[in-house]
Amino acid sequence: MALIVQKYGGSSVADAERIKSVARRIARTKEEGNRVVVVVSAMGKTTDELIKLANQVTSRPHERELDVLLHTGELVSSTLLAMALKDMGHEAISLSGAQAGIKTDATYSRARITRIDPKRVVKELDRERIVIVAGFQGITDEMDVTTLGRGGSDTSAVALAVSLGADACQIYTDVDGVSTADPRLVPQARRLSEIGYEEMLELATYGAKVMHPRAVELGELFNMPILVTSSFNDSPGTLIHGGIEMEVRNKARGIAYDLDVAKVTVVGVPDRPGIAAAIFEPLARANISIDTIVQNASIENITDLTFTVARSQLERAMEVVEPIAKSIGARECVSDSRLGKVSIIGTGMQNTPGYAARMFSALSDQGINIQLISTSEIRITCIIDEARVKDAVRVLHRAFELEEEAEN
Amino acid sequence: MALIVQKYGGSSVADAERIKSVARRIARTKEEGNRVVVVVSAMGKTTDELIKLANQVTSRPHERELDVLLHTGELVSSTLLAMALKDMGHEAISLSGAQAGIKTDATYSRARITRIDPKRVVKELDRERIVIVAGFQGITDEMDVTTLGRGGSDTSAVALAVSLGADACQIYTDVDGVSTADPRLVPQARRLSEIGYEEMLELATYGAKVMHPRAVELGELFNMPILVTSSFNDSPGTLIHGGIEMEVRNKARGIAYDLDVAKVTVVGVPDRPGIAAAIFEPLARANISIDTIVQNASIENITDLTFTVARSQLERAMEVVEPIAKSIGARECVSDSRLGKVSIIGTGMQNTPGYAARMFSALSDQGINIQLISTSEIRITCIIDEARVKDAVRVLHRAFELEEEAEN
To answer: The whole model's pTM is what?
Structure first.
């Protein structure tokens, strides 16, 4: 009898009808003779609504209290799902993150799972019950509720699958799986039937919203294969795993994009040791996540230093950086909030020349100006004008012949 | 330094503005040099909305799951209140019923508190924090969430006050305290500055909505004085306690009423032993709460048996009783759902003749027909036509000179 962990996202349980439809899918898995553990997100926009409520009470909600507030969203959806299953005649029980034994550190709003003690989950499975676990949440050793950060339910699911030694971990979402590019932008985009952990990690980190990067990382760490598939149809989905064959790997696999990019350039920085630290340490202390950093070659000991942040953090970043720029003798700080990034990803690019050149020339053929470039071993990212990002995705999808490839 | 337990009901925390206003009241209590524990209900109509959500998923929500669902309402309000206090610069922390150590049995939807282990509450008080406890909820020894039934937050508050040895237990609500009658019906109604536990218990049980009877009972059992007062103004409120002076006791104290009464009469019942049991045991098994029971004196070994139930239970009660009536050879079952009850309450009535007579003649002077009568040592209740209940309250308030009494 196989043990299957399934995770359903917020759009899959957005209302009573969808909850009942998800319940039927879960029931089918159980009826096929499996033991089933389900991780569920909060219904639709619940989390956003709870944040709005907190903001009506205070402009700076206390993190511990906010975590307790937000974790109620998943308690609601998990109990409703358990009720729907019981209504269909199935034995089911909802468990909070705490009851499911998901222990975390105490960094509220973005806690890390330290360990899982799935005693209660196993006990309920042994009683032939379908176990519904509230995602996105855990509990500290002091019995305080924490949340794992946005997309944390994916992480809950993979972590539970690992700790239970599950035979499969299935992430149900509102798309058919992982595609070569966003199908809303590129009608020719193909669903990948499989993808490696590292490629998925880069895709997720660089803008593909299908799955949370942390969860992919966890899957890779414990070699847990993850199936990403649709809760709305019977797509076979995409299997994320480590055993991709060599031939398949030797290719560009997908295009990711992100429209939420802002850029700060500190112009005319004296190029001497310690300058980068002087700028980035205060930003880290202010809890601002820096994405790409580029420092130009210096001319006459003067250089420009550019970094990107999420658009919502631009104002705060400028507040932090401007006085520092002045104090280190830089000429000025300039910012641009209307940027986006586009990335090509594929382990095939490792040690294979020509990918970068093909990307840059495809963009330039379309008159798309590249503002910044950053690369990893299996990814090349260009930061460009926000207005051209969608064009760029289409152009690159064609340039790398992603629509034409026979699916493996 | 006094330890004060305060409880705020749903209407006192119905929106962000009211939560902030309650926070200011709590802050004042703390600033006066007290240690403060606050019990809070769910915001406004939250509980009803959650029940509606459950009913969209299933027509018979499973009790364990429903309890987990409903207890989130108090988690939300308690975290928002803690946030509001922290925003005002006060140290505050929210605790769930489980974290506050409120242990219950496993009778979901109406759990009884078995014991309280207030370790965490005391620890947080010792750290100079205001402790906000989510009302209406507890946890079983198996760590499953339970709820205490409607009005359970009053019970949470009194139980916590008892277990912490609090110096005061204050119930904040949307009325000024306990009145001689509902002020919306009787403009001359006066707030009582104090009332005995037993009188309050009868008032609460017989329709005064100010406080939940279970909580009054608990206060009486442990001799914990309870102040009922308004969260909207600075009314001195009503102190419920056991030390009422003899002189004050010797009076009718208040009028209660209830518009939610339905009556079932089994007509022509053969009067032999076991008949009452044959009727009421199946009703109890069907979980139908019976209020008043009246059996007429039998004529020629034939009697009529009448009982009242809440209107929502009438249909179910008839379904249970009709086949039984047939099987025991009764003539028929009749019901009437348009009834109400009015009660006069006061320890002064114990061993004092004349109260009942005064009540009956006041009603009859107004042409109000009495359908059933039930009494306790400190209460007389008449069941009458629903349409005349409000008249009856006004008439009795005048007949017992409740508006004229100098307040003690």
So the answer is: 0.82
